[in-house]
Structure formats: structure tokens, C-alpha cells
């Protein structure tokens, strides 16, 4: 047991000494500087790797790649193209659907306008075909509801106000 106490005591003393040595401001600053230098080096390497990967995706600097890396690059590019084509297809389908909907709306509007034109032409034809006596008879029957309005040689009717 005495040996065990001595080992424990020496371990505690070494721990205290290490803690005291580590608490010095110059030691902390030096440790921090070393840590940030390592991190900076890692980040520079990461940036370099990303730039190289980007160049490879653009088809540049491919001489440094072996066959396996070229196949992997080709697979990544094909996957990217597949996603791009899929998104483009979705956008085109949406645009076609919108255009078809718009065509239907315009066709419906055209039908309505054509019906209005036909109604106006029919009314004008009826007015031209009526003789003066027919107009007088219609005016007499509808004097409570309609009053004739003469505009540049044609007769039209409106409700009294």
C-alpha cells in the first residue's frame, strides 16, 4: 500500500506541476498560436483541394488525375447533368401548362367577344330590315319601357331613366 500511495502522490504532484506550467500566459498564447497555425494550414489545404476539384469539374487540369479519379469525376458530372436536365424539364412542363391555360383563357375570351360581335351585327341587321311602320309599332308597344334614340341615321333603344 505504501508504494501505491507514493505513486499516487507523485502523479498528483506531476499533475499540479503541469497545471501550473500550463497556466502561464506565454504558454497559453504559444499554444493558441500553434493551434491557429495548424487550423490555418488545414483551411489553406481545404481551399486548395476545393479549387482543384472545381477546375476538374470545369474540365481543366485533368492531367493530374488517374483513370479511377477520371471515372469518379465523370460520374459526378453525369449526376449533375441529370439533376440539371430534370429541373429544366420541370420548368418547361410548368411553362407549357401555364401557356396552355393562358391559351384556353384567351380562346374563351375570343368566343365571348365573337358572340358579342355577332349579337351587335344581328341587331344592326334587324334594325336595317325593319320598315318604318314596324319601327313605329315597336315604339308604340314599348313606349313605357324603351325610348328611341336616333344616332346618325340608325335607331337604337334604351330604357328610360
TrEMBL record:
<keyword id="KW-0175">Coiled coil</keyword>
<dbReference type="Pfam" id="PF01486">
    <property type="entry name" value="K-box"/>
</dbReference>
<feature type="coiled-coil region">
    <location>
        <begin position="36"/>
        <end position="63"/>
    </location>
</feature>
<dbReference type="InterPro" id="IPR002487">
    <property type="entry name" value="TF_Kbox"/>
</dbReference>
<protein>
    <recommendedName>
        <fullName>K-box domain-containing protein</fullName>
    </recommendedName>
</protein>
<dbReference type="GO" id="GO:0003700">
    <property type="term" value="F:DNA-binding transcription factor activity"/>
</dbReference>
<feature type="domain" description="K-box">
    <location>
        <begin position="33"/>
        <end position="123"/>
    </location>
</feature>
<dbReference type="GO" id="GO:0005634">
    <property type="term" value="C:nucleus"/>
</dbReference>
<feature type="coiled-coil region">
    <location>
        <begin position="89"/>
        <end position="123"/>
    </location>
</feature>
Amino acid at each position: 500500500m505504501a508504494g501505491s500511495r507514493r505513486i499516487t502522490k507523485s502523479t498528483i504532484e506531476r499533475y499540479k506541476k503541469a497545471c501550473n506550467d500550463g497556466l502561464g500566459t506565454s504558454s497559453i498564447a504559444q499554444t493558441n498560436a500553434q493551434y491557429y497555425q495548424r487550423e490555418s494550414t488545414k483551411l489553406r489545404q481545404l481551399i486548395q483541394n476545393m479549387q482543384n476539384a472545381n477546375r476538374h469539374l470545369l474540365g481543366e487540369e485533368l492531367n493530374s488525375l488517374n483513370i479511377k479519379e477520371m471515372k469518379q469525376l465523370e460520374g459526378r458530372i453525369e449526376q449533375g447533368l441529370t439533376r440539371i436536365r430534370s429541373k429544366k424539364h420541370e420548368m418547361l412542363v410548368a411553362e407549357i401548362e401555364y401557356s396552355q391555360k393562358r391559351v384556353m383563357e384567351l380562346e374563351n375570351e375570343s368566343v365571348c367577344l365573337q358572340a358579342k360581335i355577332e349579337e351587335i351585327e344581328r341587331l344592326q341587321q334587324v334594325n336595317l330590315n325593319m320598315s318604318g311602320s314596324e319601327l313605329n309599332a315597336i315604339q308604340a308597344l314599348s313606349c313605357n319601357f324603351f325610348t328611341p334614340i336616333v344616332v346618325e341615321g340608325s335607331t337604337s333603344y334604351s330604357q328610360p331613366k
